[in-house]
Amino acid sequence: MCRVYLPRWLNYTLYALAEIAIIATDLAEVIGTAIALNLLIPKLPLVAGCALSILDVMAILFFYRPDGSMKGLRLFEAFVCLLVLGVVVCFCIELSMIQETSVGTVFKGYLPSSALVESEGLYQACGILGATVMPHSLFLGSGIVQPRLREYDARHGLLPQEPVSAASSTTDGYDKPTYLPSHAAIKHSLKYSITEVGLSLFTFALFVNSAILIVAGASLYQNPDALNADIFGIHDLLSKSISPAVGTIFALALLLSGISAGIVCTIAGQMVSEGALRWKLKPWLRRLVTRSISIVPSVVIAAAVGRPGLNAALTGSQVVLSSVLPFVTLPLIYFTARSRFMTVQPGMARYMLESDDEGRPITGSVSLPGGIDMSNPWWLTVAGLLVWLVIVVMNVANLVLLGLGKA
């Protein structure tokens, strides 16, 4: 959408910001994976852990096909779900080992307090926001649903034969006509996606992020050794204050979350580069380039810095994600609120045949008569803008405090 309907300079700017978010995410996930491997296998260097994370993600990407069959998509989703489930199990075990903490105290932690603007509170809050609502996940959500749309149209006889002009297309798929799903496929996939996102956000994501804070607060609060502790120090404190098993489970959860987030981040990076720039490279080479852009800075920092300063790098990367979030979400709010962009033609799926070098449609109107308006209602747009405004205020205040040296 950004490539097709926004000015070229703005599309490139948004692409650059999206890549910055992806690099920041990889910085956190790769270093986190390397640290987890180092905690589980102390003799394994951090750089070796980074290298192993690269090989793991590249292996998954070679088998993953965004335009492939639903079987491949479901296997990929199941693999990521298993990793997330492993993280949930780890934190369930850790929560069961916490003692002398009341339920009321836990729920009180969900209420805003003055601590949000004290010391590094706002800085850490922005980091948590960036880690929870990762900008690249917006691109991934819209890209990974494509096989489901196509499968629905094919199963219900709504997918027309691909135009013969595509026979001369190259194997990378960029010269092929663009697939436009039917209204029925969109409605079906929309219900599935809303349910999926709702369950993942309000069950797994909410639980895991809450569990991290609860475990940290219960075991590290008022502990003088925890004031300047990094991940290695937190692992040691958990092992000493609760039990050695908790420290091991913490490292295992860190490893599983790093692997799952790294895989998702890399695929999102591939989709961003394909959508914004229409890279005309072979699939495996495009994956390699996309992954390298994201992973090289992470490896360099892990190799050069080592243990000291990794905590600052991890938190800083999440703050970068929070800072990029308003720029990435504003086009989403804009496009979904306009009938011009959200009108779907009834009937069968279609193919868009003609486009210029930038992928912009040459023929056809954006909104033809008789189309079905699927834009967001005004109240949902207003709610989205209010949330967006809160995020902007948080990030601006955080940047001001950073400039004043108070964050």
Stretches where pLDDT is under 50 for at least 5 consecutive residues are 166-174, 361-366
The secondary-structure class comes to: mainly alpha
Strand order of the largest sheet: 1-3
Beta-strand residue percentage: under 5%
What's the average pLDDT? 75
The whole-angstrom Rg is 23 Å
Helix content: 55-70%
Principal-axis shape equals globular
What's the topology here?
Blueprint: H1 2-5, H2 8-40, H3 46-63, H4 70-96, H5 103-108, H6 121-132, H7 136-143, H8 146-155, E1 178-180, H9 183-220, H10 231-241, H11 244-277, H12 283-305, H13 310-337, H14 339-342, E2 343-344, E3 350-352, E4 372-373, H15 378-403
Antiparallel strand pairs: 1-3, 2-4
Helix pairs in contact: 2-3, 2-11, 2-12, 2-13, 3-11, 3-12, 4-9, 4-11, 6-13, 7-11, 8-9, 10-11, 11-12, 13-15
Describe it.
Helices cover 69% and strands 2% of the residues. It contains 15 helices and four strands. The protein has a two-stranded antiparallel ribbon with strand order 1-3. The chain has a two-stranded antiparallel ribbon with strand order 2-4. The radius of gyration is 23 Å and the shape is globular. Mean pLDDT is 75; it is low at 166-174 and 361-366.
Write a concise keyword list for the protein shown above:
15 helices, mainly alpha, NRAMP_fam, 407 residues, transmembrane, two-stranded antiparallel sheet, transmembrane helix, single chain
